[in-house]
Structures are given as C-alpha cells and as structure tokens.
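hiii, so i know i said id send this last week but things got crazy w the move. better late than never?? heres the sequnce for the chain we talked about at the cafe, plus the structure i predicted for it. fair warning i was half asleep when i ran it
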Amino acid sequence: MDTVMSDDPAYEIIDYAKSNIDRFIRAIEKLSDKNQFVFTIASKSFFRNIAKHILFFKQIDLIMPCYFYKVIISDLYNLIVNLVEGQVRYAYLDERSIIENYTRAIINDQVHDGHITSQSFEALQGKKYSFDFLETDFSFIKSEYRTSCAYIHGSTFLNPELSTVLCECVGGKHIRNINKYFNRIMKLLKIYDQLLISSNGESINGSFHREKVFFEYLLGKEMLELLFKTCQ
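okay and structure toks below
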C-alpha cells in the first residue's frame, strides 16, 4: 500500500519511523567502520529488526510505562553497540538481560533486579497463551539463557594466561558465524513477542489504538493477527 496516498495518520508515523530507522542504520554503519565490523546485508537486516523492536517497546512504554520495557530498550541499544565493537561478553550479558526482562514482564514479576530463577521459567511455561507455546520453543529459550550465562561466567576467564583474559575483557573480537547468532536472536525475540502479546495483549492493543498498521510495520502481520486473536 502506498503510504503517500493515505490520509491515515498511522501511515505518517510509519513514514517517520522508516526515516528514523534509516538514520539509525547509517549511524551503525559509521560505528561499524570504526570498529572493523563487516557491515553486511544480513547485519543491516538484523539491526533494522532490532530498531523496530526498540520503537515497539518505546510505544507501549509511552502509554503503559513498565520498568521491564525500559530495561529491554536499553539492552537492545547496548546489544547493537557491543556486537559492533566486538564486546562479545557484554553482548551475551545484554542477551541474558533481554531474556530476564521479557520473562518478568510476561509473568508480572515484582522483582526488578537479580537473576531470574527456575521458578520464573516454570511460571513462564505454566501460563496459558493464545497460541501454541511449543516445548521446543521453551527449550530454546532456556538453552539461550544457559549459553549466555556460560559465556558471561565461563569463557576464557579461567584461562591461566592472564594476558589472554585481559584481551577478551578489552574486546575487539567479533562473534564467529555472526549470521547464526543473528538468526538465534531473531528466533528468540519472535518467541518472546508471541508470549508478551498473549500475556499483555490488552495493554499492547491500547498502546496502538488506531495505529494497527504501525504495529504491523514493527512486528509483522503474524504478530498483528495474534494480537487480534488475543483481544477478541
């Protein structure tokens, strides 16, 4: 649909969001040049998707303020910077925090800091959702959480060579097979988006009142259909 031809204010919001994201991508590209990060079509697509998630959370936090949404926004920004700068350990720290705060927002946890527990994951799995939350998707979430924790607390920190550990702390080494990492993060976000929409559908629906086309631009048609199903 041609956004220029529409009088719907939501399309004006989309046009601005597109320009906003384009400027954001150009800024990331400049940062990539400074840090010898190879800026590919895949990385551009990934960062564009992350930018849309940032805008999504800013929108729902604007209408229904939530501490967990604010933390996720910060984590998404930091994830981009740490991936580009080669701060791998901090990128995994961002991923762990994203998992924790999505989970807390979904199960309505009152604890705002510290790590989530096995009980948190049990509560996540035990909730009723408006879609089929598969065991394989739940296992994937837990696997990503274990991987991020292992990298944060393990990695080379037990290496007897002090200089090796120091170099990792400084950063500058980018994730190997980063396209696979991009795919894992996008799969993780998709699962959590479904869980969040199913749990907080009414508030999300209200945050995009008369702006469903903007919602669809940010998260896609599949998520919009899930939102309609959740709120019917």
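btw The longest helix spans residues 9-34. thought thatd interest u
miss u guys!!
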